[in-house]
Amino acid sequence: MRADAARNRQRVLDTARALYSVQGLDVPVEAVARAAGVGIGTVYRHFPDRTRLVQAVVADRLAHVGGLLAAARTGLDGDDPAAAWDAFLGGFLDSGLPVLLPVLVPHARDADVFTEELVAVRARTANAAGEVVRTAQRLGLVRDDVGTPEIVLMFAAAMHGTPGLPDEVNSALLARRTGLLRAALRPGGDPLPGERVDVEDLLALLARP
Questions:
Q1: What gap in Å lies between CA 161 and CA 177, rounded to an integer?
Q2: If you compute the radius of gyration of the chain from its CA atoms, what whole number of angstroms results?
Q3: What is the number of alpha carbons within 13 Å of residue 122 lying toward its C-beta?
Q4: Which of the 8 DSSP states describes residue 208?
Q5: 52 burial type by CB count under 10 A (0-12 exposed, 13-18 middle, 19+ buried)
Q6: DSSP sequence for 183-202
Q7: Sign of torsion over alpha carbons 101, 103, 104, 107
Q8: For 153-162, b where at least 16 C-beta lie within 10 A, e where not — what string?
């Protein structure tokens, strides 16, 4: 693929992800093309229909987060695991996946969104995330009474702004909110009520018909 074609493809994916995060997965392809500043033909050259575009957005973000997890595994085994954990959290928050998750979860069993291949990638990514979190917990970087899905969904819920507030206010509040949640993950503090939810629990729920 030529460099300009690859850039256009990624621009369409990033634009679609941003629109889906706000408006849901039913955004027309024409709206994505218009927002991305490309012709409708450019979109269809890469993605034959809206379903393929949705699937490509999911695949793109899972691949991106998979790369972050691989880097985190290496970094946690290195000389500065705390920096590696902080870098992973920052990368995850910047990946766009947290704000997309609330839109994807209702479609977790929808084969038009999660093909068999994407279900397998989703499971591998979730298990890799569980491994990274457990390593961070063993190293004393994360409290040990919280499960990986709880961390991911907690940030997903926190990443959305409050409707009606100016963008600059929402941005400032978001920066403080994510800092607060990072601090909440550190060891110490009162025990959490109930049982922790682990990756295995979440994958079992998603596998139910």
A1: 10
A2: 18
A3: 24
A4: -
A5: middle
A6: HHHSS-SSPPSS----HHHH
A7: positive
A8: bebbebbeee
Structural contact between residues 92 and 128, judged by C-beta atoms closer than 8 angstroms:
no
CB contact burial 88-111 (16+ within 10 A = b; e otherwise): bbebbbebbbbbbbebbeeebeee
Instruction: Please state, in angstroms and rounded to a whole number, the distance separating the CA atoms of residues 148 and 201.
Output: 10
Residue 39, Ramachandran bin (φ over 0: left; ψ between -120 and 50: alpha; else beta):
beta
**In the block, residue with structure tokens 């290195």:** 78
Token pair for residue 45?
């050259």
Please report which helix (H) or strand (E) contains residue 33, including its range: helix 29-36
Tens of pLDDT along the chain (209 residues)?
Answer: 677 878 999 999 999 999 999 999 999 999 999 999 999 999 999 999 999 999 999 999 999 999 999 999 999 999 999 999 999 999 999 999 999 999 999 999 999 999 999 999 999 999 999 999 999 999 999 999 999 999 999 999 888 888 899 999 988 998 898 889 899 999 988 899 999 999 998 888 887 66
